[in-house]
Write a structure and sequence with these properties.
With 315 residues, the chain is α/β, with parallel strands linked by helices. Helix content is 53%, strand content 10%. Strand 1 (29-31), helix 2 and strand 2 (58-64) form a beta-alpha-beta unit. Helix 7 packs antiparallel against helix 9 (223-234) and helix 10 packs across helix 11 (261-269). It starts with a helix and ends with a strand. 28% of the residues are buried.
Length: 315
């Protein structure tokens, strides 16, 4: 029995140690990082206090250094529930939580406001109103714009913008969905990944372009790679352009070598590092050497409750 208790404590103790405390609610705007200017904090506090007086909606902003290993969504709702934002039976509270060092944020919405401040609108507010400023280090503008958008969304005057239309890409319009996260990739990472992918795909593309038989298989096999990687890194429009350049360019190159006398002569001379055997039927393939190559690659809450509505993001 003692051993069971001992091992149970070994399992539970790290969890208890890692649990991050919820700060005591004192004001509507709490900055535990000392990042925000006191004048900005005071002005935002007055705005949220006036908003509560007019509508009874309680909106709070919490800025913390780090989540300390906590899951963003779990810690956010823990804060909202402990603070009991919103009026009892109205559940009209909203929490804007920002973890600066983790570069994460979340809008937590009380039950009573989920109809007007929907998950879609919360995502829109984070992506369009907050993150562009956070990426530049302008946290005050991001928070102010986010709070204004939250208030407008509750009032019904803020609407989600229409998703970007990729119908001009025709059959490749599906790439639009795959490119949603590319704006969040730092340009240094984009450059590194682009060079790496170009190098790797370039080797296989050279084989696809110049190998007479297996090359056709590799040519079609590379279709998803030449479309998905550029799209994920640079967006749907660039991804579609890169894919079409590959598909049309390499396709025409291979057809030229297949259908024209000059092209067949080049293949016969072995531009892929080998040659056709001079004896035997003309339909025989590469020599053994090329064949080997083709196999290698003060304020208090009013008692409101929350149910997990809202949206999260990172910058």
């Amino acid at each position: 029995m003692q051993r069971i208790l001992f091992f149970s404590l070994l399992f539970v103790f790290p969890i208890l140690v890692q649990a991050k405390d919820v700060p005591t609610l004192k004001t509507r705007v709490m900055d535990e990082t000392w990042t925000l200017d006191p004048g900005f904090v005071s002005a935002l506090e007055r705005q949220l206090k006036d908003q509560e007086s007019k509508t009874s909606n309680q909106i709070a902003v919490l800025v913390i250094p780090s989540l300390d290993g906590e899951v963003l969504e779990e810690y956010s709702i823990k804060v909202a529930e402990e603070w009991k934002l919103g009026q009892k039976k109205k559940d009209n509270g909203v929490l804007l939580l920002i973890a600066l060092n983790d570069r994460k944020l979340r809008i937590e919405v009380g039950y009573g406001l989920e109809g007007s401040l929907t998950d879609v609108l919360c995502h829109q507010i984070i992506e369009k109103e907050i993150k562009p400023y956070f990426k530049k280090g302008d946290f005050e503008s991001g928070i102010q714009n986010g709070v204004n958008a939250i208030i407008d969304a509750i009032d019904g005057s803020y609407t989600a913008s229409s998703p970007e239309d990729y119908s001009h890409l025709g059959p490749l319009s599906f790439l639009g969905k795959l490119s949603e996260g590319q704006d969040e990739i730092p340009y240094q990472v984009k450059i590194f990944v682009s060079v790496f992918v170009l190098l790797i795909l370039g080797i296989f593309t050279y084989v696809a372009a110049n190998a007479p038989y297996i090359g056709w298989f590799i040519y079609f096999f590379l279709f998803p790679f030449w479309s998905l990687f550029p799209t994920a890194i640079h967006g749907a429009n660039i991804g579609a352009s890169v894919f079409l350049t590959y598909a049309i360019g390499i396709g025409l190159y291979k057809l030229y070598h297949l259908l024209t006398p000059h092209g067949r002569m080049r293949m016969k001379k072995g531009i892929f590092g080998g040659s056709y055997r001079s004896s035997g039927s003309s339909g025989r393939g590469w020599s053994s050497s090329s064949g080997g190559s083709s196999r290698s690659g003060g304020f208090s809450g009013g008692g409101g409750s929350f149910g997990g509505g809202g949206s999260s993001g990172s910058w």
